[in-house]
Amino acid sequence: MVDFYYWTTPNGHKVTMFLEESGLDYNIKPINISKGEQFVPDFLKIAPNNRIPAIVDHTPVGGSEPIAIFESGAILLYLADKTKQFIPQDLRGRNECLQWLFWQMGGLGPMAGQNHHFVQYAPEQLPYAIDRYVKETSRLYGVLNKHLSDGREYICGEYSIADMASYPWVVPHERQRQDMSQFPYLSSWFERIGSRPATQKAYDIAKSINTAPTVDQNAKSILFGQDAKTVV
């Protein structure tokens, strides 16, 4: 059994998609980040970065004590290795998958996240910041579109954690001011993943947990007002 500490963000969706695809038994423990639940001491023992998602695997391979893991990329890699699913088992394939997983973690996610912030949530419109992050999001979409242009259905050929990591960050493409018609191969990939039953189940779960996905002023102060004092 895996305890899954979750909220309805792109990084949260990644793990739900894996869990639904793999058939692992899991128990969702919602952490409402808009209400500050990520600062509860018991959660911080599992996720010291006060961010979701996180997991506790109560049945790790080898039968040792439970293992706690935070950071969505690390969780996907751990679960893929645990189940031997959704990651190539040969050296070259595995390394290709890891490169694209890290590409999402270091590029697509952070840049799209900054895009979201300055376009949707910043208290004032800053044209330079908006232009910077909208363009960089576009560049990253272009990188993935070009990669998919060789006829492959998924990022590494077969469906993998690289796809699960990237898909949730493309879902809000309209809010990112991206025109999917400019990325035909990416668009086909996006539709292909969206049609998977596990993907649909993952997003249905999100709707059932977060029934009012709004960010009010109090939530903004919690989500965007942190500094080193928050950690202390």
Give me some keywords for this one:
232 residues, alpha+beta, Glutaredoxin, Glutathione S-transferase Yfyf (Class Pi), Chain A, domain 2, four-stranded mixed beta sheet, 10 helices, 56% helix, globular, transferase activity, transferase, Glutathione_S-Trfase, Thioredoxin-like_sf
Estimate what percentage of residues fall within beta strands: 5-15%
| Rg (CA only) | 18 Å
> Which class do the helix and strand fractions yield?
alpha+beta
Q: How is the largest sheet built, in terms of strand order?
A: 2-1-3-4
In terms of per-residue confidence, which ranges show pLDDT below 50 for 5 or more consecutive residues? Answer: none
What is the N-to-C order of secondary-structure elements (H for helix, E for strand)? EHEHEEHHHHHHHH
The overall average pLDDT, rounded, is 94
**Count of discrete structural domains:** 2
Fraction of residues in helix: 55-70%
Give the overall form: globular
Q: Predict the CATH topology of the largest domain.
A: Glutathione S-transferase Yfyf (Class Pi), Chain A, domain 2
Q: Count the E strands.
A: 4
In CATH, the architecture of the largest domain is Up-down Bundle
Instruction: Please give the count of helices.
Output: 10
Largest sheet, described in full? 4 strands, mixed
Distance between the ends: 32 Å
InterPro entries: Glutathione-S-Trfase_C-like, Glutathione-S-Trfase_C_sf, Glutathione_S-Trfase, Glutathione_S-Trfase_N, GST_C, Thioredoxin-like_sf
Pfam families: GST_C, GST_N
Family: Belongs to the GST superfamily.
Domain GST N-terminal: 1-87
